[in-house]
Amino acid sequence: MGSETPRFLTLADVAEVLNVTVRQVYALVRSGDLRGIQIGGRGQWRVEHVELEDYIQRQYARVESHLLDPDFASELDGQDLSSSRSSD
Questions:
Q1: Which H, E and C letters describe the chain, residue by residue?
Q2: Hey, which residues does 9 pair with through a beta bridge?
């Protein structure tokens, strides 16, 4: 396969791409926000690369629609986003 992107990614791989924890990815998969499959006898999760890309695009669209909402935009105006980082 060479340097091609693998079709399926582990939850750890997805976490690395999204720069979040494996727990957060597991929650996304379990909730159905991010489509994944369970394989093998131990039911390990895998996420297809195209599903991850689709999830990312949906998140961009969600943010764009929120930014068009005047109520959401006014909430952002009152926040200091640089200091609102927390340990997700």
A1: CCCCCCCEEEHHHHHHHHCCCHHHHHHHHHHCCCCCEEECCCCEEEEEHHHHHHHHHHHHHHHHHHHHCHHHHHHHHCCCHHHCCCCC
A2: 47
The Cα–Cα gap between 33 and 6 comes to: 21
Which structure tokens are listed for 5? 């992107």
Using the structure block, give the residue that is written with the tokens 């079709």: 7
Is the full-model pTM beyond 0.70? yes
5-44 pLDDT tens trace: 899 999 999 999 999 999 999 999 999 999 999 999 898 9
CB 52 within 8 A of CB 59: no
